[in-house]
Design goal:
Pfam families: CooC_C, TcfC. Keywords: Fimbrium biogenesis, Signal, Transport. Belongs to the EcpC/MatD family. Part of the ecpRABCDE operon, which encodes the E.coli common pilus (ECP). ECP is found in both commensal and pathogenic strains and plays a dual role in early-stage biofilm development and host cell recognition. The structure is a single chain. This protein is mainly beta and 783 residues long. Among the domains are: 8-113, Ubiquitin-like (UB roll); 231-296, Immunoglobulin-like (Sandwich), CATH 2.60.40; 708-782, Sandwich (Immunoglobulin-like). It contains 4 helices and 52 strands. The strands form 7 sheets. It has a 24-stranded antiparallel β-barrel. A 6-stranded mixed β-sheet has the order 4-3-2-1-6-5. Strands 39, 42, 44, 46, 49 and 52 form a 6-stranded mixed β-sheet that branches. The longest helix is centred in the N-terminal third of the chain and has 8 residues, at 57-64. The relative contact order is 0.07.
């Protein structure tokens, strides 16, 4: 069939210059050759160069080099909003709107590289200028006329990505003890350590302290480290849109994402394994949802990124009045971990001394309803070990937590000699009850079920060491709410416990009442206890009250008082705590009546010191490994500011003050000031970014100038008003009216620059300003 006379040229190919859209956004202009129903790119390579994140340009080039269907039937219009504007091509496809000279290009998601809102890079190392963060704590406790004390200190000396870390204590009966003293260097994805420190150890041996060196994979310096700990969630979007993340119907995050393969930002999601919903807001108000499974566990290697480690050195002991006590036992450890999929991970380690070598193989399963850990150990001397742990994810009413372990030691001695340790700020935590002295079997766990707001559960533990009697304890508990109102809770409680040497039971009620910084807690019931053949039973109860207050500068204090009647005795106690910019103080006292009469007390004081070449500060509410010192200078004495870190208020300060804030390390923070009240002031309102590593101290200073709004009348030498003159200062711009009156903001020392309509200028510096409520009258200003 031929075209009608005069229309034959419409069938001929013709050139068109069109706007190229990708993901709903214009990315450039392209030249096309168009004929009815068909479109060809004149320069497909140029079109591909305009597209972000193409994984296989050659495959895409082969597709765009041929003539493509125009798909005009899929053009959206005010009358057609459904089933339009979308394609799901095998490689690539287009929708060409000739009337608007627009061509939308669609590419198969498999050809697009994933993109992330969180930069997948490494934190920039802080300045190499030396700095120090130190925490000091004093603990006093006493009873019966005897007082114990312990002074703890943690100090980090840092320069850029390197640091020296020290934890020490001075305690009664121990003297000075150094818990660790180690130099560390972060080099992208590795951390090098040398000195005395706690090696990571393994499940069935524990965490040893060594004097030696080591190297391990680390993700702390990654900007996306929180993402790496969780299951990657990829979502393809054919255009920019907003995506909500919901868990159990609760909105946990909402962000806008660009078109393409997006790695969803999961940094706001909690640890655990659970199902979630991605709610995608499409154009026209439509939404669609996708269900995904997500798991986060910091102990498991990130998906696709193996973890490796190696440590060696001499085991270190703790001896009284000996700051450092290396032993004669050589220790080594090497291994790795790898995540096979979102729900499965494996690990292996070789550990040993000159007496024996061991290998441990383990794995994790991160399921929708349960998390499991299993490990097995075998040594060159025939020692064996096994571990099984299981815990529920909290996704249902049933809760489960089980730990089963067995160690068989041929000589009934610890597989690795276990060092003692002193109490301090160190992260080295030694659980001797789990490690045992040699051959042992241990089981502990709990199982419970939620019934509405109530809970029924059973808790138990079992321990048997070779050559000793077995110990066990087991007992049920139940909590059922009776009254649930705003500020008032009344619940029925009952529990019982049976162990090798005792039996105990309790039944009663518990009351919680709270409002406006005050709370009252009480319980009353009947309890019985039998131990070593002796039985005691009677009515028991507790009543406790607490007052709490938080000031505008985030200082907090609380005070508590209580009286308690137990099966054994009656006691009263009181306590309190204060959190301020100068540190943390806590104290409590308890007095018992009856046969066991006596008084006990405890006091704990903690504070920090941050020091750098540009500033120093003492105090701080939280004791973290890095610090920020904010200071405000200037003449605006009445101005008051909130210090916002990542848009969260961390304290309040005025001109002439400084505020130390201790923060977690390996983070980038955005910092700014927000005015609260006081005089009109000029200051830098822009956010400032700082990166903190352990031991880093960042000093930020703001200069605040008091502002005065001045008003007056500008006149010439003859006294005639100057109309329509531009009035400028460093901080403001104004204009005189037809009668010469003007108003403008200025700071101390500012001059007034007047520019007449004809271009003539004059400068005047006001003097002897006497502002009232932020305003000052200049009277007549001659120009």
């Amino acid at each position: 069939m031929e075209a009608p006379s005069g229309f034959a040229n419409l069938d001929e190919p013709r050139p068109v210059l069109a706007d190229l859209y990708f993901g709903g956004k214009k990315v450039g202009d392209v030249e096309l050759t168009v004929r009815p129903g068909k479109v060809r790119f004149d320069d497909p390579e140029q079109a591909i160069s305009l597209l972000p994140g193409i994984l296989d340009p050659q495959q895409l080039l082969a597709e765009l080099a041929r003539e493509l269907p125009a798909n005009a039937a899929l053009i959206c219009s005010p009358m057609k909003t459904d089933e339009c504007g979308r394609l799901s091509p095998a490689v690539a496809g287009i929708i060409f709107d000739e009337e608007r000279f627009r061509i939308d290009l669609f590419v198969n998601p498999g050809l697009l590289a994933p993109t992330s809102l969180v930069p997948q890079d490494y934190l920039e190392a802080p300045s190499k200028a030396p700095s120090m963060v130190s925490s000091v704590g004093l603990t006093l406790s006493g009873s019966g006329g005897r007082t114990n004390y312990n002074i703890q200190n943690r100090t980090l000396l840092a320069a850029g990505n390197a640091r020296v870390r020290s934890d020490s204590s001075y305690a009664r009966g121990y003297g000075l003890v150094v818990d660790n003293l180690v130099a560390e260097v972060d080099a992208r994805n590795l951390r090098y350590s040398a000195g005395m420190f706690w090696a990571p150890g393994i499940d069935l041996v524990g965490q040893p302290r060594i004097v030696g060196a080591g190297v391990a994979t680390q993700f702390d310096t990654r900007t996306d480290k929180d993402l790496l700990e969780g299951t990657p969630l990829y979502l393809f979007l054919d255009r920019a849109t907003r995506v909500d993340i919901l868990v159990d119907g609760r909105l946990l995050d909402s962000r806008a994402y660009e078109a393409g393969n997006n790695l969803i930002d999961t940094t706001a999601l909690p640890t655990g394994a659970y199902a979630l919903v991605l709610r995608i807001h499409d154009t026209g108000g439509r939404t669609r949802e996708e269900r995904r499974f997500f798991a986060r566990n910091a102990q498991v290697a990130p998906q696709g990124k193996p973890m490796l480690f190696a440590y060696a050195g001499m085991l270190a002991n703790t001896r009284r009045h000996r700051p450092v006590s290396p032993s004669g036992t050589f220790y080594y450890q090497a291994g790795g971990a790898y995540r096979l999929s979102a729900g499965f991970a494996v690990d292996a380690a070789v550990v040993g001394t000159q007496r024996r070598s061991m290998v441990q193989l383990g794995g994790y399963h991160l399921g929708r309803t349960v998390r499991m850990r299993a490990a097995a150990l075998l040594s060159t001397r025939g020692d064996t070990g096994a571990l099984i742990q299981a815990s529920s994810t909290g996704s249902g009413p049933l809760s489960l937590n089980v730990d089963l372990r067995r160690i068989s030691s041929k000589d009934n001695r610890p597989l690795i000699p276990v060092p003692a340790y002193a109490d301090g700020f160190s992260d080295g935590v030694l659980d001797r009850t789990r490690l045992g002295s040699g051959t042992y079997t241990q089981a502990s766990g709990s199982i419970g079920y939620r019934i509405g707001q109530g809970y029924v559960g059973v808790t138990g533990a079992y321990r048997h060491d070779r050559g000793r009697r077995s110990d066990y304890s087991v007992g049920p508990s139940i909590t059922l709410p009776v009254v649930q109102r705003s500020g008032l809770q009344l619940a029925f409680q009952a529990d019982a416990q049976r162990s090798r040497s005792s039996t105990a039971a309790y039944v009663g009620f518990r009351l919680n009442a709270f409002a406006h910084g005050r709370s009252l807690i009480g319980n009353a019931g009947y309890a019985s206890r039998r131990q070593d053949g002796e039985r005691a039973q009677r009515m028991v109860g507790t009543i406790a009250g607490e007052l709490y207050h938080q000031a505008a500068d985030r200082s907090e204090w609380n005070a508590t008082a209580a009286a308690e009647r137990t099966v054994e005795d009656t006691n009263v106690r009181a306590g309190g705590s204060l959190y301020s910019r100068f540190g943390v103080s806590k104290g409590d006292v308890l007095h018992r009546f009856g046969d066991t009469a006596g008084t006990q007390y405890g006091v704990n004081i903690q504070a920090g010191l941050a020091l750098s070449g540009t500033g120093a500060a003492f105090g701080g509410r939280e004791l973290m490994q890095s610090a920020l010192i904010a200071s405000v200078a200037g003449d605006a004495k009445d101005a008051e500011f909130d210090l916002l870190i990542n848009n969260m208020p961390k304290g309040r300060l005025r001109a002439g003050q400084q505020l130390p804030v201790y923060l977690p390390a390996y983070r980038r923070y955005d910092v700014r000031l927000r005015p609260v009240s006081g005089a009109n002031a000029s200051f830098d309102t822009q956010e400032r970014s700082v990166t903190l590593f352990p031991g880093t101290v960042a000093a930020l200073r703001w200069s605040v100038e008091e502002m005065v709004t001045v008003f007056g009348k500008v006149v010439d030498q003859s006294g005639a008003p100057i109309a329509d003159a531009r009035v400028e200062t460093r901080h403001g711009i104004g204009e005189s009216d037809s009668a010469g009156f003007f108003q403008v903001d200025l700071a101390k020392g500012d001059e007034l620059l007047f520019t007449r309509s004809g271009g003539e200028r004059c400068r005047v510096t006001p003097s002897n300003l006497q502002p009232k409520a932020g305003y000052a009258a200049l009277g007549k200003v001659m120009c």
